[in-house]
Design a protein that fits this description.
It contains five helices and six strands. The chain is an alpha+beta fold and 179 residues long. Helix 1 packs across helix 2. It is globular, with a radius of gyration of 16 Å.
């Protein structure tokens, strides 16, 4: 099993290829690491922005918080709907598509600002994604301000050579999703 961290993912993005030369994987295969990194960098940013959105004020944020809490306690079906865009009234940027979401098993952790992605060694789910869902820190200049959270939530996805730029939040107090 491979536990992926931000440093390893960034190193992968700079490699010409990470798969053995005798093995060529189809573009959408989970072991095609270049495609996987491209996809994960975008998903990491979107997941982090989704979590930060739940820290904002308002009914939408309250409903997103409840979905994360429910996924931690019992059932992740609403979380999967949120992540695939089926709850577009709450979050209008699908993070996973219908077939892709089945590759992941989700675990919500309430005591971390950093998530992880672990290869399960199984065909399905191929990965266990631990999503950090810590309480919003006390707002302030020494931690994170409400304005900084809003800026991160609104920051657009910008790609360069297929890789999402700036997929790590600007503040240590905003979760790094699963990377």
């Amino acid at each position: 099993m491979k536990d992926l961290k931000i440093k390893e993912l960034v190193e992968w993005s700079h490699c010409k290829t990470s798969a053995p030369s005798f093995r060529v994987y189809p573009e959408n295969h989970p072991c095609n690491y270049e495609t996987l990194f491209s996809l994960l960098s975008k998903q990491c940013k979107l997941l982090s922005q989704l979590i930060a959105t739940s820290w904002l004020n308002g009914e939408k944020a309250t409903q997103i918080r409840e979905i994360f809490r429910k996924a931690k306690r019992e059932d992740d079906s609403d979380l999967k709907d949120l992540l695939t865009g089926k709850k577009s009234e709450l979050w209008d940027q699908p993070i996973f598509d219908e077939t892709e979401i089945d590759r992941y098993e989700f675990e919500i952790t309430l005591d971390s600002f950093e998530g992880s992605l672990i290869e399960t060694g199984k065909v399905s789910p191929a990965f266990k994604m631990t999503l950090p869902y810590p309480p919003r820190p006390a707002l302030g200049e020494l931690t994170v301000t409400y304005a900084e959270i809003e800026e991160w939530v609104k920051e657009p996805i910008v790609e360069e050579n297929g890789i999402t730029k700036d997929f790590v939040p600007p503040s240590l107090y905003i979760p790094c999703s699963s990377c």
